[in-house]
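Example record for the data management plan.
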Amino acid sequence: MRGGRGAGASGRLLLICAAALLLAGCTFPGSTGPMVKIGLVAPFEGLYRPLGYEALYAMKLAVRERNAAGGVGGYMVELVALDDSGDPAQAALSARKMAVDPDVMGVIGHFLDETTVAALDEYHRAGLALIAPAAANEVTERGYPEVFRLFATNERLGAEAARYAVVELGAKRLAVLRGREDLAQAFARATRELGATVVLDANVEEVDWAALAEAGPDAIFFSGGAVCGAELMVEARRAGIEAILVGGSELDKPHLVRIGGEAVEGAIYVTSAPDPAGAQGFVARYRALAGHPPGPRAVLAYDAACALLEALEQVIEEEGRPGREGVVAALAKVRYEGLLGPIAFNARGDWAAPRVCVYRIEGGRYPGRQVR
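Corresponding structural encoding:
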């Protein structure tokens, strides 16, 4: 995915230039007022590059709108965006870079489970607030007060996926192929509680296709990512298995359709990222800025930015100036009505009333049709 040392440096330079162009307009040139920064860390290079730029345009829109309305507590807002390339080591490094800038009051990121988990310690050490649109249970299990999740947990998503597969689709015999363990455990437990049968439960690296074909599942639940899920279903079709694919939010990537093609037609995945079509005003404003319509993750990024800005304004009004400790405390109490609905966090830092959306891949198109 990367070239040599020289090629990598060149790629990073191009990324910095591109990000600078994209961020133009997030603050007002010539403004003499005080400035405060919020951050975005996302994949701007590599396999998940489109996801990063989808989030970037959404956050740029949120910052632009807040600055046009006068900023937060008299401060203009600057957006700082750093790349993590979808790589856990790079995610931790980018988090450290955010942390050493004293003007950064909070960060939105990292949009993938593995990169979010890899960066948690850095935000905690710096006392820097992180709003994470990520499902891994571990995101809030460490008890870090700086970390807030704007997503359903894998525990919740696994249970909802099982409920949809068994109750709505009528699946009675299900196979579980394990990628993320927390998601797989939640799905398998809920499946059995609903009275269905788990005919095979195996790690994804150890799939016996002949045994799986003989088991005859109605659906295959895979708790890993879109690329691997697509490849698995291609293999399943070659083995004569006609079961549909069911999965969690890590399937919510365009690679599922690009790689899987007809093998993933009818696939079901659960996520907290809603179809933005229901928010026409947001869609129009996003399109005017980006030149194309938003995807589901843009809604999460936009609302996360707005909730962070709301908390930041509260701190400035109460304390007279921004501060990281105050932002963390304000986020714990924030109440914001966004595109996602009410946004507030419980004592663990989890979204108090998380949305769960169900999508079905139809006509070979991503993200598919939101069926619930």
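Summary line stored alongside the record: The chain has a mean pLDDT of 92.
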